[in-house]
Amino acid sequence: MTIALPACFRFIFAFALAVLPAIGEELPKLIAHRGASEQAPENTLVAIRTAWQQGADGIEADFLLSADGEVVCIHDNTTKRTANKNLKVSKSTLAELRALDYGAWKSPEFKGEKIPVLSEVLDEIPSGKWFFLEIKDSPKIVKPIAEILSRKRPDRERLILISFDKEVVKTCRETIPGYRACLISSLKNFSKKGAPERFMAELESCGAQGLIFKESAPVTKEWLTQAGGANRILMAWTINRRRSAIRATKLGSTFLATDRPGALRKELQLATPMRQ
Questions:
Q1: Is the pLDDT of residue 275 over 50?
Q2: CA distances (Å), 209 to each of 2, 29, 179, in order?
Q3: Mean pLDDT value of segment 30-40
Q4: SS3 of residue 262 by DSSP
Q5: What span, in angstroms and rounded, lies between the C-alpha atoms of 94 and 90?
Q6: Which among 120, 153, 209, 237 has the fewest CB atoms less than 10 Å away?
Q7: In sequence order, which residues have a C-beta less than 8 Å from that of residue 172 and are 6 or more positions away?
Q8: Residue 4: what pLDDT?
Q9: Helix H or strand E segment including 62
């Protein structure tokens, strides 16, 4: 006897089957963008710990240099958006930055959260997890980072240095050759004549060993395959919906930067039982 499924279930089943070949047998690695930043205050230790609780494959975090030469974990040049007082990071000492609250803006439950330094973030990376260390500063920060990495000795295979600044990537290649360095680019205007060649030349000129790109860019899988090179470091940002994840995966992304690693993984695995 044949049982007729309601129309809504037929649609869900058809969509699930369509998704399977797009995602493949293995999902890309899910990298918590500034930690699990949808749920916890970005670039804090609680956001990083929440990412591990959600099953993230790795984290991405941002770093700037303080006035007294400390490598601090923060995205913006000032503390205005994520703290209870507005200070310019490069003009403030670590003690001054530590005196601020970086959690209450997100929720009262995070009140009292402090700005981390790179060494503390490294201590939060479990064995086997990935760490995309984004440099938001000029090349002057590379030497202090190199000194910290020399002391802490994180996994060379799973720590990736990334930056929008070609000079920073180049300096990383020269100063910290034991760790891979990748360029970040929105690939804006990629569809314009000559743009693919220009972007590739930028990657080659700084010695980038991979690419972090904006998922919505009108890029092709063939170009990205060449950009990723032998290292196959290709990460799309910021992927918070299944549709975006599927598109990025089709483009060959090996990593997806997401604010919600736990929820996104569940959404991508919804069709898994239908493989049986």
A1: no
A2: 55, 18, 10
A3: 98
A4: helix
A5: 10
A6: 153
A7: 135, 142, 161, 163, 179, 181
A8: 52
A9: strand 58-65
In this structure, are strands 211-214 and 255-258 parallel, antiparallel, or unpaired? Answer: unpaired
* Radius of gyration (C-alpha) of the chain in whole angstroms: 20
- What residues does 159 pair with on adjacent strands? 131
Helices and strands, counts by H and E, the chain: 10, 9
- With DSSP H G I counted as helix, E B as strand and the rest as coil, what are the percentages for the chain, rounded to 5? 40, 15, 40
**Those residues with Cβ within 8 angstroms of residue 22's Cβ, 6 or more apart along the chain or in another chain:** 246, 249, 250
How far is 233 from 261, CA to CA, in rounded Å?
19
Q: What are phi and psi of 155, to 5 degrees?
A: -60, 115
**Which domains, and CATH codes, for the chain?**
25-63+125-271 (3.20.20.190)
* Cα–Cα distances in angstroms (integers) from residue 135 to residues 73, 86, 106, 145, in the given order: 10, 21, 24, 9
CA dist 47 → 102, 116, 212, 256 (Å): 11, 11, 21, 17
* pLDDT on residue 34: 98
Q: Examine the pLDDT at 19 and tell me if it is beyond 90.
A: no
Residue type, 235: M
Contact call for residues 156 and 177 (beta carbons, < 8 A): no
**How far, in Å, CA of 184 to CA of 162, rounded?**
6
Q: Which residues contact 168 (CB under 8 A, 6 or more apart)?
A: 135, 137, 138, 139, 141, 142
Q: Work out whether strand 58-65 and strand 71-73 pair parallel, antiparallel, or are unpaired.
A: antiparallel
